[in-house]
Amino acid sequence: MCVLLWVVLAIGVLLCPAQAIDGYSQLDQSSRAGVDLVVQQLHAHVGVHAHFLFFRSVEKSDIEAGFGARHISHHFLLKPTTCAKGTTPATVETCPFRNDRPLMDCKVCYKMFRDEIEAEPKPYVHCIQKPKLTQMMRQSRLDRCRRMRYTNGAPTLLASTQN
């Protein structure tokens, strides 16, 4: 009976990192680009001392804006790892998650054109430790992302002229 318990425990330990890796690898390319942007900015921030990896998505939206443009909003969680800040390449296998630190709650909104993040409008990135996230911050995130969607350009693109 004791051996069976050890086997079940060992299988569980082996499956946990695989599921975490699958979380990032199962994201589509446009969502991965946003997560990579956030992680890059987070690791460049002077006040952040931990190394973070993607943990899981909370909410995603992908709105077609026409002419190959898309507006993407992605709310997700990052989890601190045991690795030093700036470790590359970092995966859950090389940098296991820590359970003694809070998750980082992140929201990113950006415009993509032909699978590249556009510089204009400037991507909106907001991350804060999950326990510190307030309802006012949630509303502010939502408002900022909504404003980005409505800067698509002039409606005169389809206007025609007669000679």
From TrEMBL:
Coiled coil: none
Record keywords: Disulfide bond, Secreted, Signal
One GO molecular-function entry: signaling receptor binding
Annotated GO CC locations: extracellular region
Span of the signal peptide: 1-20
Subcellular location: Secreted
GO annotation terms (biological process): inflammatory response; regulation of lipid catabolic process
Cited InterPro entries: Chemerin (IPR029562)
Keyword Ubl conjugation set for record: no
Main subcellular localisation: secreted
PANTHER family in UniProt: RETINOIC ACID RECEPTOR RESPONDER PROTEIN 2 (PTHR15106)
Protein known as: Uncharacterized LOC115537169
